[in-house]
UniProtKB/TrEMBL annotation:
All residue ranges annotated as the HTH luxR-type domain in the record: 149-214
Gene3D superfamilies linked to this entry: 3.40.50.2300
Keywords: DNA-binding, Transcription, Transcription regulation
CDD domains, sorted: LuxR_C_like (cd06170)
Protein name (record): LuxR C-terminal-related transcriptional regulator
């Protein structure tokens, strides 16, 4: 038995092509509309069994607001998101908004149809490989390329990290030397090396950079671990 559904995508040609393919397979396609920003009102008005909602950016804030609105006004409508290979956050955001499934844009029509049928039956419609990749990344997250604090810490030796923390605490060269049990000249050399590696011109700048990036928190936890 065919499913009564809607196809909504920012790309009208894609929406119309998918709608045509699904009609040929015996489904009742109510509408193929663009842009997706108006999807919620259309779906609420037509009340299909399943809505295929296309998105090009599943990680963008607010992209799944239409899903939230649809589920609030028409909770019986199952929403299946059509999108690119998602990040774990993208999949999580789609399901958190109330989506019943996630299908890649390049999925074969048979795969899209299976997702539609599962969603109508109240099942989660997402490819096992997508779930496997999502859970794998969530359980074993890769280091973030924009983690500036980690990048800066990797430039410093453990002793230089301690010097930086002491600089941020306002210690002068004499107190740094006494606290670390080293000569003042050695402490001064360490401070200069820290400033050079961080690319700053003063102790104040070094302290500000360390605080802004969260480097001080990381450094503090590292020192605590070393003392245990």
């Amino acid at each position: 038995m065919g499913v009564r559904l809607m196809v909504v995508d920012d790309h009208r040609l894609l929406a119309e092509a998918l709608a045509s393919a699904l009609k040929l397979r015996g489904h009742r396609v109510v509408a193929a509309a663009a842009p997706a920003a108006g999807a919620a009102d259309l779906v609420i008005a037509r009340a299909p069994e399943v809505c295929l909602l296309g998105t090009a950016a599943p990680a963008e804030p607010g992209v799944f607001d239409p899903v939230v609105k649809i589920k609030r006004e028409r909770p019986q409508v199952a929403v299946v998101v059509l999108g690119p290979v998602p990040s774990p956050r993208g999949i999580a955001a789609a399901f958190a908004a109330g989506a019943s499934g996630y299908v890649r844009h390049d999925e074969r029509i048979e795969g899209v149809e299976r997702a539609i049928m599962k969603a109508r039956a109240g099942e989660a419609a997402v490819a096992p490989l997508l779930l496997q990749g999502a859970f794998g990344e969530l359980l074993n997250p890769a280091a973030q390329p924009d983690d500036e604090a980690q990048r800066l810490l990797e430039m410093l030796t453990p002793r230089e990290v301690e010097v930086l923390v002491r600089v941020a605490d306002g210690e002068d060269t004499r107190r740094i030397a006494a606290g670390m049990g080293i000569a003042p000249s050695t402490a001064r050399t360490h401070v200069q090396r820290v400033l050079m590696k961080l690319g700053v011109g003063s102790r104040l700048e070094a302290a500000a950079l360390a605080a802004r990036t969260g480097l001080l928190d990381r450094a503090g936890s590292l020192r605590g671990t070393a003392l245990e």
